[in-house]
Amino acid sequence: MLNLTSQEIARGTQEQHQALLTVDSSAQQVRPLADNVQRHAPVSESVNQQLDSMAEHLKQFLLSFCH
After folding, report:
1. How far is CA 59 from CA 11, 19, 64, in A?
2. How far apart (Å, rounded) are the C-alpha atoms in residues 36 and 63?
3. What total of structural domains would you count in the chain?
4. What is the rounded CA–CA span in Å between residue 28 and residue 64?
5. Does the pTM of the predicted model rise above 0.70?
6. CA–CA dist 42, 24 (Å, integer)
7. Is residue 46 pLDDT above 80, yes or no?
8. Which of 4, 24, 38, 49 could be joined to 8 by an S-S link, Cβ 3.0–4.6 Å?
């Protein structure tokens, strides 16, 4: 059985509280970044589709010169 003093318990509680504050602060910093990524994802997908389409057209165009 553990015999902890009030001071040891308080120290542990304070360390846990500080850890929670650190995690909360980190989450608050990450949230806007995640929102930004989510907002830009559809634009990135659209650009990727356009680039794929352009690449396919270029490939077909170049193949027409080879034949």
Report:
1. 67, 55, 9
2. 40
3. 1
4. 55
5. no
6. 29
7. yes
8. 4
